[in-house]
UniProtKB/TrEMBL annotation:
Protein name: Sugar lactone lactonase YvrE
Family (UniProt): Belongs to the SMP-30/CGR1 family.
Cofactor annotation comment: Binds 1 divalent metal cation per subunit.
UniProt keywords, alphabetically: Metal-binding, Zinc
Binding site for a divalent metal cation: E17, N148, D198
Matches recorded under InterPro entries: 6-blade_b-propeller_TolB-like, SGL, SMP-30
Binding residues annotated for substrate, in chain numbering: R100, N102
Organism annotation: Algoriphagus chordae
Domain annotation SMP-30/Gluconolactonase/LRE-like region: ranges: 15-258
Listed GO biological process terms: L-ascorbic acid biosynthetic process
Active-site residues, record numbering mapped to chain: D198
SUPFAM superfamilies: Calcium-dependent phosphotriesterase
């Protein structure tokens, strides 16, 4: 496996997550969920800006007009970056105050896919929703514990999905017209010693880049054969998510966390909670925007 060089962006997140490349602003976004912080790192001027919200902020996506779509607690909102104003769009699981969003993506038809979990990590309490332009969330999967990473193949035939504690990446048949999914197979089984699969993205060769929580890096998996192809080793144990960005979509932004670490571990891994940028030999895809 090749050695990757990384650049760290200081953010010291308790739970860094939600990386997103905004091509229009030439910026990477990511969040610190529990502290409600939104980070924006502009690649052109290498400057990082922070915004704060009085909510747990888990998901960053993009609207068709270039503004942000945010997953705050259990509500989805549009965020105008110029006037810094939130417009609430919809809510899920309003009768479960301990629940929050965890990860989200937009498919090529402009629909939001967003999952939930209980902050007590109660087994089977989470779900995955699809939000079409009617803003009416429709449950796609239930009995999830930590709804997490998602990716679609370039031909839109397959949807990959992670429920973290299962240590499995599942492949679903994806109907692009209706947005319906149907379980097909387990694409990758993650060995226990490699930690837990968290957020992920897909490259133009159809391979999955998966952040491994407790696994000290991002791993590249072949979802057809199930084999491990590569690893980006990082100086932090809890690696949470990743996305491709940059002008050529060949820079991986990787988020990490400080949670579940003792003070001794934090001394041993002082960069925990920072974001990392790594140049790869492969490219990702430009993210789709929410059409509403």
């Amino acid at each position: 496996m090749k050695t990757y060089n990384y650049t760290s962006i200081p953010s010291q997140c308790f739970l860094g997550e939600g990386p997103y490349w905004h091509a229009g602003r030439q910026s990477f976004f990511w969040v610190d969920i529990e502290n409600g912080k939104l980070f924006e790192h502009n690649l052109k001027i290498s400057e990082t800006k922070t915004r704060s919200f009085p909510h747990r902020l888990a998901v960053v996506l993009e609207s068709e007009d270039g503004n942000l779509i945010l997953g705050l607690d259990r509500k989805i909102a549009k965020f105008d970056l110029e006037i810094e104003k939130l417009t609430w769009l919809c809510e899920v699981e309003s009768d479960f105050p301990l629940h929050r969003f965890n990860d989200g993506k937009v498919d090529t038809k402009g629909r939001i896919w967003i999952g939930t979990l209980s902050t007590k990590f109660t087994k089977g309490s989470g779900a995955l929703y699809r939000v079409d332009k009617d803003l009416n969330p429709k449950k796609q999967l239930d009995q999830l514990t930590i709804s997490n990473g998602m990716a679609w193949t370039a031909d839109n035939q397959t949807f990959y999905f992670i429920d973290t504690p299962t240590r499995k990446i599942k492949a679903f048949h994806f109907d692009i017209a209706s947005g319906e999914i149907e379980f097909e197979r387990v694409a990758v089984d993650i060995p226990e010693e490699l930690g837990f699969p968290d957020g992920m993205c897909i490259d133009q060769e159809g391979m999955l880049w998966v952040a491994h929580y407790g696994g000290l890096g991002v791993y590249r998996w072949n979802p057809i054969s199930g084999e491990l192809l590569d690893k980006i080793e990082l100086p932090v144990p809890h690696v949470t998510s990743c996305c491709f960005g940059g002008e050529n979509l060949d820079i991986l932004l990787i988020t990490t966390a400080q949670e579940n670490m003792s003070s001794e571990q934090l001394k041993e891994y002082p960069l925990s909670g920072d974001a990392f940028m790594v140049k790869t030999n492969t490219k990702g895809f430009k993210a789709s925007r929410f059409l509403h």
